[in-house]
Amino acid sequence: MNMPISRSAYRILTLVLLAVLFVAVNTFSNTVFRSARIDLTANHLYTLSDGTKEVLSKIDEPITLRFFYSEKLATDFPRIRTYANQVRDLLEEIRDESNGKIILRVIDPEPFSEQEDLAMSLGLKGAPTTEGDVIYFGLVGNNLVDGLERIPFFTDERQDYLEYDIMKMVQTLSRPKKPVLGIVTNLPLDTGTGGLMAAMKGRSQPFMIYTELVNRFEMEFLEQKFNRVPDNVDVLMIAHPRELDEQTLYAIDQFVMRGGRVLAFVDPFSEVSMERGEDGKPVRGFTQTSDLHRLFQSWGVDYDPSKIVGDKGLAQRVRTGFDARKQDSDYVIWLRVPKEHMNQSDIVTADVDRINLGTVGYLTPEKGATTSFTPLITSSKDSRLYDRDYVATGPRPDQLLAGFKPDDKQYVIAARLSGPVKSAFKAEPPERPKDDQKSSSTKAKMPDYKAKSDKPVNIIVVADSDIFADRFWVQTQSYSGERVAQPIADNANFIMSAIDNLMGSNELISLRARERADRRFEVVEKLKTQAEEHYLARQKALQATIDKTEARLSNLQTGEDVAPEDKEKADAEIRQFRKELLTARQEMRGVQRSLRENVETLGSYVRFLNVLAMPILVALVAMGLAVWRYRRRKARVAHGPAKKGA
After folding, report:
1. Do the Cβ atoms of 266 and 290 come closer than 8 Å?
2. How far, rounded to the nearest angstrom, does the alpha carbon of residue 15 sit from its chain's CA centroid?
3. How far apart are the first and last CA of the chain?
4. pLDDT, tens digit, 9 for 90 and up, residues 325-360
5. E strand segments, 443-562
6. Mean pLDDT score, 525-542
7. How many other CB atoms sit within 10 Å of the CB of residue 485?
8. 575 φψ region: left (φ > 0), alpha (ψ -120 to 50), beta (else)
9. Sign, CA torsion 460/462/465/469
10. pLDDT value for 542
11. Strands (E), 153-209
């Protein structure tokens, strides 16, 4: 005999089957649709750029990325937790796009664990909490050889450049050798101000920036006469060269036509080049001015070597005078450029806080240029131009300030050039005379002529060379015979960032800053601003009334503007002003209280929408469906007997 299933048992069985089906569908979708994603964020925060995909497609050997994140300790830090989720999602996207070339490991280094010891040994930096624990939030990458790169801590300041920083690490690890930096310069970078003579005596002190470059790159100095840039050079740095001959300019031109990247420093008045060495004289063969006019025309930038920018708003303070009359003064041709005058949307200058420069020139885009001109460093509007010949006479700071009249315009000191370019030459130039071919660099075969660039060029031009001088950006001390540097400006940071950026592929260079994951509530901000404007207008009017009343009251109380016969009238007027002042202040407090209450009400409204509105809406829909089903079932029961009786 078959027992009928009760209605309640049927419902329970249905719920069990639905739960099993829910788990099965989730398991199936996680397995089959693991890599299927839809990025619905406004700025596509989780969609990889084309440049990243191109870099990943060129990886030959596996790279392991270890993401250290103290997830349990970060529970009480919502800002870190939100950013960490973004980092992990991006790393997973990179791993999935790499076709197995990126191996991702997520590690939670709990306190006093082996994972925490590993994080410390790999050079990661932890953020201490008030409880004494340390939160780790960094990335370590290594290749199959001995390459090791790290991001010690994902700081909030670099959040906009998250994808770029990770992909720069990946690309560095995918290279088997150090990248090669070619250098064309008339500055004694490797010997210091003493030049070759000091080096021969064992007393040379290389520029501190040169020491940084040696640690990061394979260096290849090119003499200032050569027929071609060696094929192994990744980036060519031209730092205040002497006047280059036609064959050398052609070699640089064709290097750029074939996709080579250039970082160029020119200067209308190079003080670092003229610094005196041990013998009290500048290094032999020094040059006061440098220019790359023919190449600049091809690249789409104009530079006037006869003008120097003076900037009263960014002037460095220097000590002037003698003996007891020494005093600080603004030296308008030495600039102290803060973060506000650097391009924060460009990766090279985004992390630079301050640069110290001396006797700088300026750059402008060439008319009809095929390249885009992006300013990186600019002067303030409190600037003007000086003739180089006048500056060369050595005017005192007070003489430069005398009659200073700003042009009310900002001058571009450094710029990025990108886009297609045409060669500066119509054809390959003739070779040098036989007696001028003394070195292997001038005997090498000149490259075949190309009339235009293979791909968009990437060039950074700076109208200053004093950026290299130690005295402008670093203080050095000697400990046990070793120089220790203490930076006072970010000159080295700027140069290293520019070279690092240019060392990357065109795809990596093209990466730009992304929006942050924790976006502002724009509608809320707009409503808040409107509320503030409404109340602040009234507050401003009341404040004016209070100030005027207090001034008049003060005059009456001190007896100013009051004749003796009008004393009684003045006393009555004082009482009236005090009453008006009290009323105005009470109204002012009311306005301020209303503004605060309005903003708090707005915040409560937003919190209500975020936390309760959706659950309430779902509950109302569920109640509506329940009522509809109840009425439908009741109607079906009511019509049942009628049909049976019929």
Report:
1. yes
2. 54
3. 32
4. 556 789 999 999 999 999 988 889 988 899 999 999
5. 457-462, 474-479, 482-487
6. 59
7. 16
8. alpha
9. negative
10. 63
11. 180-185
